[in-house]
Amino acid sequence: MSDKTETVEEAAGETGLSQRLYGALSRFEGPHTIGTSDRFWLGFLIVVATILSYPMLASEFGVLTTTTLFVWVFLSLSLSICWGYAGIFSFGQTAFFGLGGYTFGVVGINLLPVTGGTNLALLAAILVPALGAAAVGYFMFYGRVSGVYVAIITLAVTLILELLFSRTAGAEYAIGSAQLGGYNGMTGIPDLTLGAGPVVIELDTMGTFYFVVGLLIVMYLALRYVLNSNYGYLMVATRESEDRTETLGYDVRLLKLQVFTVAGGVAGLGGALYASTGNFISPPIMGLAFAALPVIWITVGGRKTLIGAILGTLAVRGLSNRLASAGSELAVIFVGLLLLASVLLLPEGAVPTINQYLQQRFAPDKGEQP
Amino acid sequence: MSTVTTVLDLLTIIASGFGTLVLVALGLAIIFGMMGIINLAHGEFIMIGAYATALSYQQGIPLVLAIVVGGFVTGVFGVIVERLVIQHLYDRTIDSMVATWGLSLIMTQSVLIVFGPTLGGIGTPFGAVSYGSYSASIYQWVLAAAAVFLLSVVYLLFNYTEYGLHAKATIEDEETARSLGIDTDRIYMITFFVGSLLAGVAGGLFAPTISLVPSLGGSYIIEAFVTVIVGGASVLVGVPASGLALSIINGGAAQFGGALAGRVALLVVAILIIRLLPEGISEYITEHIRG
C-alpha cells in the first residue's frame, strides 16, 4: 500500500494530468504482480507495439501460428489465477477449454445462418464452461475437498469429458445441425464473425490476430486490476493459509468457488478462440497429455505471476513447436528436462527469479546514483 | 447354463480387474502413503518393468525369473531417480506431481528413441480354460493371485522386519524417529526402492498380456492414481478394498455398456468417494470395525 501513496505523492508536483495517470496506474500495481516502475510500463507499451506491428512483417502462416500460440495463453492465465493466486491446483482446466470450444462450435454452427454472427456463440462459450466450473467448484469446495484431491477430481472431470465426447461418433450425436463427430472431432466450426445486422465483420487471419491480442491485453490489465484490489489480496491470503483467512471472517469456500468459476470462463474463452481459429476441435484436447500442458507452462514461467504464466506459455510452447516441426525427437525430452529443472532449481518459476535478480542488481536504493 | 456362464464371465472380469488395480496401485500407494510423493511417472516405471522383463525373457530367461529381473531393474532405476530428483521434493506433494510428470515425458520419449515404437511381445502363458461356452485365459486369474501374494509380502515386510518397524516409526513421527537413531533418509530411499520394485513386478506380470509400446504407462497411471486415492492412507487395507470395489464397478459397467462405460464409471465413483469419504475407504473400514 505504501508503494501506491509514494507514487501518487511523487507525481503530485507535476501536472494534473500525469497525476491522474499515475493515480490510475497505481490501481494496476501491487506486490503480487510484477512491474511497478515507469520503466516497466514503457517496456509494456513497446512490447505491445511490437506485437501489433508483427503481422505487417510476417507471412500469413506465421501470423496464424502466432495467433494459436496466444490462444493457449488464455488457458495458462486461467490456471494461473486459480492455482497460482488462489491455490486451487486444477489439473483439468482443459475440461473448460474443451467445453468452451465445443460450445462455440455447436452454437456457432447453428446460429451463424440465423443471426449472421458468432457473438452469441462466443458468449455461450464463456458462460457454459463457467457454469460447469461453478458446478464442479461447488461440489468440491463446499465438500471441503482441497489440495491434491482437487487435482484428482478436476483431472477425472476432464478425462470423463474426453471419454464422453469420444463416444459421440455417428449421426445421432448432433445438436441442431452441429455434428459432434466422436473421436475425430467437430469440423466446420465458423470463423469469428463479430457485429450484428448491417455491420458484420468476419475476421480473417489478420483480424483474428488483432482480436486475440486485444482480448489478451484487456484480460491482462483486468486481471492486474483485480489481483491488486482487496479481492486479489484475499485470493493470495487463501492460497497462503485457508485456515487463517477463514478465522479472519472470510468465506473461503465462496471465494474459491468464485475464482474457479471465473477461471472456467477464461479457459472457455480460450477454447472458443482455439476452435474458431482452427475451425476444429476434438476430444484429445481434454485428455491427460493436454491437461498437463498448462501446468508445465506456468510452472516453468512462474505460476504466481501473470507475466510468468504468459511468458512461460509462449516460450515453452513456442520452442517445443519449433523443435517438433524441425522433426526433432528430442522436443519432448527437452520439455521434460525443462520441467524437472524448473521444479528443482527455480521452484518459483523463471520470471519471478529473473525479476528478483534484476531488482537486486538495479535497485535504486543500492546504486550510487549521481 | 447361460447364467453360470454370465456369472463366471463377470467373476473373471472382476478378478482380473482386481489383480490389475492392486498391482498398479500398490507401489504408488506405498510411496504416496509413506513419503507424500505423488509419482506421476509410476506408469513409466511399470513400462520399464515390462520392457526389462520382455528383454530378459527374449534372452532365454524363464518368465518368472524375468519378472523378478524386471522388478529389480525398476527398483534400481527408482533409487537413482530418488537420489537425483525425489529427495528434494519431500513435503512438496504438488511439486512432486509436476516434476514426475516431466520425468514421465523423458522416460517415454527416451524408450521410444532407444527401442523404437514397439518391442516384440511375449505370448501369454498357461493357455485358456473353458466351461461350456465360458472361456478365459488362466493368466487373468494368475494376475489376481499375484496381487494377493504381493499384498502378503508387503504385509510381512512392514510388520515383521526391522525396516518395516523403522518405516512405520518414520511415518508416525519423523523427527522422533530420527532422534532415536533411525536414518530416515535411508528409510525413504528404501521405500522408494520397494515402491519402484513393485511397479516393475507389475509391469513384468502385465508384459505377456499387452503390446509393449513406450506409451503403455499412460493407460495405467489414472487407474493407479484413482485406486490409491480411493483407498486412503492405510495401504494394506485401502488398496485391496478400493481395488475390489472399483473392479466390481468397472467390470459391471463394462459388462453392460462396454469398456468406455467402465472407465467412466470408475472415474465418476472416484469423484464421489473423494467427496463423501475424504479419508478414503480404509479410514471408513477401520473406523467401523473399531466401532
What is the structure about, briefly put?
By secondary structure, chain A is mostly helical. Chain A has 15 helices and six strands.
Give an account of the 3D structure.
The complex is a heterodimer of chains A (370) and B (291). By secondary structure, chain A is mainly α. Chain A has one domain. Helix content of chain A is 71%, strand content 4%. Chain A has 15 helices and 6 strands. Chain A has helices spanning 2-12, 16-26, 38-57, 60-85, 93-115, 119-141, 148-166, 205-227, 230-240, 242-247, 252-278, 288-301, 306-325, 331-345, 350-361, and strands at 174-175, 178-179, 186-187, 193-196, 199-202, 280-281. In chain A, the strands form 3 sheets. A two-stranded antiparallel sheet of chain A has the order 1-2. Chain A has a two-stranded antiparallel sheet with strand order 3-6. In chain A, helix 3 runs antiparallel to helix 8 and helix 12 (288-301) crosses helix 14. Chain A is globular. The two termini of chain A are 28 Å apart. In chain A, 45% of the residues are buried. Residues 1-14 and 366-370 of chain A have low confidence and may be disordered. Chain B has 291 residues and is mostly helical. Chain B has one domain (2-120, 158-290). Chain B has 11 helices and 2 strands, in the order H-H-H-H-E-E-H-H-H-H-H-H-H. In chain B, strands 1-2 form a two-stranded antiparallel sheet. In chain B, helix 2 (42-58) crosses helix 8 and helix 9 (218-231) packs across helix 10. The radius of gyration of chain B is 19 Å and the shape is globular. The model of chain B has no long low-confidence stretch (mean pLDDT 88). The interface between A and B is large, with 41 and 38 residues.
